[in-house]
Protein: methylmalonate-semialdehyde dehydrogenase (CoA acylating)
Organism: Pedococcus aerophilus
Amino acid sequence: MTTRISHWIDGRLTEGTSGRTSPVYNPATGAVTGEVDLASLEELDTAVASASAAAKEWRSASLSHRSAVLFAFRELLHQRTPELAAIITSEHGKVLSDAAGEIARGLENVEFATGVPNLLKGGFTEQAATGVDVYNIRQPLGVVAGVTPFNFPAMVPLWMCANAIACGNAFILKPSEKDPSAALFLAQLWKEAGLPDGLFTVLHGDKVAVDGLLDHLGIAAVSFVGSTPIAKYIYERGTANGKRVQALGGAKNHALVLPDADVDMAADSVVSAAYGSAGERCMALSVAVAVGDVAQPLVDAIAARLPKLTVGDGTDADTDMGPLITAEHRDKVAGYVGAGQEAGATVVVDGREGDLPTDGFFLGTTLLDHVTPEMTVYTDEIFGPVLSVVRVDTYEEGLELINSNQYANGTAIFTRDGGAARRFQFDVEVGMVGINVPIPVPVAYYSFGGWKDSLFGDTHMYGPEGINFYTRGKVVTQRWPDPATSSVDLGFPRTR
Ligand code: NAD
């Protein structure tokens, strides 16, 4: 039995009419568990019409009312985390604790958005000119869309929708077709929280739906998170159509391990960040740059930890690492390990070998040493449980390697030297930096985003930049003159 996974339009489940669907798998068993509807352009029009009508009302809702809905949503999300985590694990494969972790990080964004009355507070200048006051206000854009990746089916939509809705917009989510059910659970919670129908829409689909969103005159802005080629495409097509676009792309995150680092702590951190969620995180550490003498002890310490990790079904409490998202992706990742080996990397631990569950899309942990920058295991985002170690002689050489990479999402330095860490923070050309912190995802009251090919557009996701993205500024200059002093003056207005 497979489940039909339908759209959520105008506050209710709406069966697709396009006749096109896509299979959804349980990656731990390999079984098809659902068929998700893929939207047509006509269905997109219906969704935008509903969202547009709802947005016109919602922009008039008081800030305290919006905040109350967000508080209610926050409570429901918190209470029903175990249910949502189970949905995520069943379609994504990540372990339940990791699924609960992504919900907790998404929840932070909802909590941030509950402060919308304060976040939208503008400035006021009295007496900018004689008898003239100036103030600024921020207003919603109308209907905005989010296109999200498979690897965080709850957190990334929450990065976007909490702020978008708090700011007075209607939000249309096009989730990944690989794990679409979490989006519908969020829709149900929004409804239970009292959000009016039409303000949170889930439109499932593929390129047809995404292109439709990018072209639709009724959509004012698009937030995207996914791979770099698609992020670039989304940015170019969306902005060509006059929309605001923030498009976050792929990553190749380096850990720089200095000779003075605590080797055991660095190894614990690198293993956690390389293999957590089977490496399918945009903030995964996929390259360890070992400086000088730390290289061999670091490789030994990482290798010693890998046999202790249990690979299996994410619903099993003993499992550390679940399967990959699809069979094709698992085979692609395994292909990179082979390519690295052929190119001369040392395979210290081979994830293709060993005792893995036979059903499902499993691959073990791989550790490659003596990786060099021209190998495809280094140049490409693999998005799997593969860690490459690049050995360098100096801090400068390591820094140069990181700064030469096309991706610049996150990075982390491991050291006991505060001066070296401070220097790295200043020198490194990457958007998010960890100092002895392996996955430096900013808290919700900062903003998230990489540099270079990890982000197209100039606005980072969520936090203060998210509030700016989902609103446009208006500046009002006012005076209340005495009619008796009124006169015609064709000169340009001056403040002095
Ligand atoms: P993806 O780019 O394949 O898909 C992302 C979204 O784009 C999905 O909703 C998908 O349906 C849609 N899409 C795919 N191909 C399209 C096309 N040709 N035209 C229009 N839309 C298309 O990414 P994914 O495999 O779902 O997710 C993994 C990628 O996301 C990795 O590269 C990862 O680094 C990246 N990611 C980045 C961040 C970040 O914050 N920078 C966060 C999470 C994931």
Remarks:
- Residues 147-152, 174, 176-177, 206-207, 210, 225-227, 230, 248-251, 282, 381, 383, 409, 450, 454 surround nicotinamide-adenine-dinucleotide (CB under 6 Å).
- The two ends are 76 Å apart (CA to CA).
- The mean pLDDT is 97.
- The chain has 16 helices and 23 strands.
